Amino acid sequence: DARVTQTPRDKVTEMGQEVTMRCQPILGHNTVFWYRQTMMQGLELLAYFRNRAPLDDSGMPKDRFSAEMPDATLATLKIQPSEPRDSAVYFCASGTATGTYTEAFFGQGTRLTVV
Amino acid sequence: AQSVTQLGSHVSVSEGALVLLRCNYSSSVPPYLFWYVQYPNQGLQLLLKYTTGATLVKGINGFEAEFKKSETSFHLTKPSAHMSDAAEYFCAVSEIQGAQKLVFGQGTRLTINP
């Protein structure tokens, strides 16, 4: 049963620390999305990649967030330094761009708490 | 740019009653539309999608939605609610052209009363 795998599931860290979240997309998918979910803002698109190249990261705070795809089986989202306002659930989703639309399959999420 | 508005952040129905969750979209080009469901502490799962063809689409768990271009709507319905339907539901839009990114509405929390 193919699924998107995110690690860790839960992360508690102190303000100022570096946080790295990892995502293993479904094998064969060429598109990866990173979303952040909070009560106040709902689901926000932070960044997405197609064929490992970043297509849009306009939703991401550039000064502290970075997203990469070192290879086709791994996507990372890094926050350095972390702040309490970064506390949220971060979702990775992968899909295959058909040329007209992309259907996204979501991972279980990483719940980040910055204290 | 495309956007989605879900009317009602919280909907409550009785078990066995009709479920109606409203979604209106804004898009400069014909959209692709999706409904996702999120159970507590879980990721989002695709319920159904409209891409082309028939405007009434059926999904999993007895849900269906109808694309109405004239009303720019894509409301989600289920004839008879079940306790297991309690969850948060998200409508999303993706443009046919351009970047094809998925933009989500704010979500509607569905509560089922026994």
Entry summary:
The complex is a heterodimer of chains A (115) and B (114). Chain A is mainly beta and 115 residues long.
Query: How many DSSP H or I helices of chain B?
Result: 0
For the residues shown, what is the average pLDDT of chain A? 92
Number of strands of chain B: 11
Q: What is the SS-derived class of chain B?
A: mainly beta
Note the total helix count of chain A. 0
Q: Structural class, from secondary structure content of chain A? A: mainly beta
Number of strands of chain A: 11
Biggest sheet of chain B, open or closed, and with what strands and sense?
6 strands, mixed
Radius of gyration of chain A: 13 Å
Largest sheet of chain A, if any?
A: 7 strands, mixed
Helix content class of chain B: under 10%
Oligomer: heterodimer
Strand content of chain B: over 45%
Choose one word for the global shape of chain A.
globular
Q: How large, in whole angstroms, is the Cα Rg of chain B?
A: 14 Å
The overall pLDDT of chain B, averaged over residues, is 91
The first-to-last residue Cα distance of chain A is 36 Å
**Share of helix among residues of chain A?**
under 10%
What does this entry look like structurally?
The complex is a heterodimer of chains A (115) and B (114). Chain A has 115 residues and is an all-beta fold. Chain A is built from no helices and eleven strands. Chain A has strands at residues 5-7, 10-13, 19-24, 31-38, 42-50, 53-56, 65-71, 74-79, 88-95, 105-106, 110-114. Chain A is globular, with a radius of gyration of 13 Å. The mean pLDDT of chain A is 92. Chain B is 0% helix and 57% strand. Chain B has strands at 3-7, 10-14, 19-26, 31-38, 44-50, 56-58, 64-68, 73-78, 87-95, 102-104, 108-113. Chain B is globular and about 45 Å long. Chain B starts with a strand and ends with a strand. Chain A binds chain B through residues 4, 33, 35, 42-43, 45, 48, 55-56, 91, 93, 97, 100-109, and chain B through 32, 34, 36, 41-46, 49, 51, 90, 94, 96, 99-107.
